Amino acid sequence: LFLVVSIIFAYVMSRRAMKPIIHSFVRQQKFTADASHELRTPLTVLHSSIEVLENETEDILSPFGKQVMDDMKDEVRRMTSLISNLLSLAQADAAVVDLTYDEFSLDGELERAFRNFQPIAQQQAIKLVLKANTQVIVRADQERLQQLFVILLDNAVQYTAAGDRIMMKATVKGNLLTLQIQDTGIGIPEAKLQEVFERFGRVDESRNRTQGHTGLGLSIAKWIVESHGGTIWVESEVGIGSTFFIALPIVSHLATT
Ligand code: ADP
C-alpha cells in the first residue's frame, strides 16, 4: 500500500511541477507563431510601397538608385520568406496548426508549381521537365503541399547550374504516391545527407548562388511530409546531382474524368 501511495503521490507532484513548464513552453511557441504572423503584414506593406516608389521614380532614378531599389525589394523578400519559414516551424512546434484536408488534382497542383518556376528556370537556362500524368485526386492540405513543391523546386534551381536539368516525376501505386525531384546539380556529400533535413542544416554557406537561403526549407518540407504520414529522403552524388524522394499515403481515389 505504501508503495502504491508513494507512486500516486510522486505522479501527482510531478504533474504539478511539470504544469508550469509545459504551459510556459506552449506560451512561448504560441508567442513565436503570433509574432511571426504580425511581422509579415508590415513587410507586405513595405514591399508594395517600394513598388509604388519604383514606378513613381522610374524616369528620374540613376542606375545606382535603381540597383538600391532592387536590393531593397530582395531584402524584403528574404525577410518575408524567413519569417514565413519561422512561422511554419513555430506552428509545427506549438502544434497549433491543423492541416486542412481538401481533395484536388495532383497533376494540377504539380503543374501550378511548375508554372511558377518556369520563368526563373528559363532565365538561368535550366531545363524543367514534369512527368505527372497520374490522373489522381489526392486528399491533403493543398497549401502545405504547394509549399513543399516550392521548397524542393527552389532548392533544385538554387543548386543547379545553367544548362542543367530538373525533373519532377509523380507515380502512384495503390494508395502510395511517390514524388521524385531530380536535379543534375552540385550534389550533397554522403556525410551530410541526413543533416540537410535538420533546422539550419546546410552543407556549405559558400555554395549558395543567391542570398536568402537559411537552411530551414528542408526541415519544413520534412514536417509537411511527416504530418501527412509520409517520408522524405534524398539520394545524391557530388558533381552528379540529387534526387529527393517523397512517399505519401494520400491518394483518395482515381479520377473518373
Ligand atoms: P537552404 O535554405 O539553405 O537551401 P534547405 O533546408 O532547403 O536550406 O537545404 C539545406 C541544405 O541542403 C542547403 O543549404 C544545401 O546545402 C543542401 N541542398 C538542398 N537541396 C539541394 C539540392 N537540390 N542540391 C544540392 N544541395 C542541396
UniProtKB/TrEMBL annotation:
Membrane topology label: Multi-pass membrane protein
Reaction(s) catalysed by this chain's protein: ATP + protein L-histidine = ADP + protein N-phospho-L-histidine
Histidine kinase domain sequence ranges: 34-252
Annotated localization: Cell membrane
Enzyme class: transferase
GO MF annotation list: ATP binding; phosphorelay sensor kinase activity
Domain of life of the organism encoding this protein: Bacteria
Gene Ontology cellular component terms for the protein in this record: plasma membrane
Its EC number(s): 2.7.13.3
Keywords of this entry: ATP-binding, Kinase, Membrane, Nucleotide-binding, Phosphoprotein, Transferase, Transmembrane, Transmembrane helix, Two-component regulatory system
Bilayer-crossing regions: 1-14
Main location, first listed in the record: membrane
Stated name of the protein: histidine kinase
Parent sequence residues shown: 220 to 476 of 476
